[in-house]
Amino acid sequence: MIELIPDWLGNWLGQDGLDTIKYLTNGKHMAWYSSVKFTLIAAVLGGVLAVFFGLMGAAMKQSKIAPLRWIGNIYTTMVRGIPDVLFLLFFPLALEQLAELVMAYMYCSPEQWSNATGWPVCREAQWLLSTNEYLLMACLSFGIVFGAFAANVIYGAMQAVPKGQLEAAEAFGFTEKQILWRFQIRQMWVYALPGLSNVWLLLLKATSLLSLLQITDIVSWADRLGAPNYLSMAGLVHPDWRWKYYLVLFIFYILLTMISERFFAFLQVRASRGMARSN
Amino acid sequence: MDWLMSTPFVQDIVILFKPALYNIYFALVSIPFGFPLAILLALGKNSRNRLIASFSKVYIYAFRGSPLFIQFFMFYSISLACNQSLWKPLGLDGLMLNPLFIGPLVLILNTSAYAAEIFYGALQTIPKGEIEASRALGMTKWQEFRTTTWPNMLRLAWPGYTNEVVFLFHATAIVYFTLPVINDQKDLLNKAGELFEKDYNLFLHFSVAALYFLVISMILFYLLNLVNKYLNRHLKVRSNLKIKPSYIR
After folding, report:
1. Which candidate in A78, A90, A146 is best for mutational testing of the B interface (most B CBs within 10 A)?
2. pLDDT in tens, A81-105
3. Among the four residues A30, A51, A123, B146, which has the most C-beta atoms within 10 Å?
4. Where would I find the ABC transmembrane type-1 domain in this sequence (chain A) (predicted)?
5. Contact A228, A241 (CB under 8 A)
6. Assigned architecture for domain B2-231
């Protein structure tokens, strides 16, 4: 990295400036920068899944079949009383155990089953998750948790679609499914966008919790890089610099929030083209 | 009775009772300090003084725009960096590095920003006519605030503030993921995780922890709804807070 800097710029920066750049572009720091990908993947994939679960939940909430409606209502109410961290820890572990149970039925012999004292039943049925698998699990849990928030938003937005339009569609002989997909869901986005923007911001902030799932994300890297170093062999000798790294993350997340807000404002303008406005 | 006490479910309820007190402690300490700070920030954001208004705006934006998880790490590491030069000479090192102190401190800073935004929103929607009426009556600024702005703001903001309090309680779950756990000071999720590591009985331990969160959230809703009723007592239509998820935070 350092050799890419032209001489004139190097002279202008001086030795201290060059050393700083050298420090900030060493292998560990590059790994830190590239770990931003985990955050972004979790946010985007989690967001897509959240909209998917949100649509399912909202459709269930307004279903005519009572048990489906109950499930929809329980799903959307659970996030009210229980913190998202609990779900974030629970779902990956639950899915892991479920997979291990299936593997145990497939690979473990009856003797191993009867002799088993704990978990897993036998060695073949142990699933050690890699980072990518943890990331997928995290995305799935984000999808489930924030899908519940999104379901509320989408449900409200569906109710906000003018009833007259749906009745008109019915009068034209559209089937119920067609009305749901071509009129209600097609038109609800404008009403849902402000709420979905809020859910997105919540999700974005929740991506900081990835380190709880053994993913070396930006937070764990910040912790490692900032830890005091007294060995010159291990790089620059410095005291505890963790607060500097966390400050960077603090600003990083504020910037992400700013960019998201701009983007959603732009989407809102685009989505409300052709809508009658009162103001 | 003995068979009941020996069921794993009841045993878990008993084991997790003390950890639940830590979560309750964090929330209960943060609310009385966060509330007035939030009101001050909301009034600050609404103020005509440019300096105060922009400070409040930046503060609210920064704390709402970044994760609480990072805020915990950041404030704890700042406090840690100040330890040798500042806290030790002042003899404050025991206090400033104690999770029981710094946890509520960060929670107060965080919740005051969220609540301030709610109160600020309420300030914007106070009926104009009422303020004009109080001015027409020749009230002083203070009288106007005391009789018109304050009760209206509180009444309009209360449903949102209720949400915020419940979210604050939920946020206490991550205190001990970021701050050091001293001795056996474990909160609900820490203890549930510890129990899980012993026997891998995921569903039992986590559902009991979730049950604690659920029940305490319900109690918070109930208590805050009583206040809501009191604030709206002059209105014919009683507005009840519903236990219905809100997506605004």
Report:
1. A90
2. 889 899 988 988 888 888 888 887 8
3. A51
4. 36-264
5. yes
6. Orthogonal Bundle (1.10)
- From B190's Cα to the closest Cα of chain A, the distance in A is 10
Q: In whole angstroms, what is the distance from residue A11 CA to residue A158 CA? A: 62
**Separation between Cα atoms, residue B140 and residue B123, nearest integer Å:** 18
Residue B91, classified by CB atoms within 10 Å of its CB into exposed (0-12), middle (13-18) or buried (19+), is exposed
CB A217: neighbour CB atoms within 10 A?
A: 25
Tell me the domain boundaries of chain A: 35-271
**Phi and psi at residue A5, to the nearest 5°:** -80, 125
Cis peptide bond N-terminal to B99, omega within 30: no
Mind telling me how many Å the CA of A219 is from chain B's nearest CA?
8
| Chain B residues touching A195 at Cβ < 8 A | 247-248
Phi, psi of A229 (to 5 degrees): -125, 120
Q: Which residue has the tokens 């990956």?
A: A92
The answer to whether domain A35-271 has CATH 1.10.3720.10 is yes
Q: What tokens appear for A51 in the block? A: 């909209």
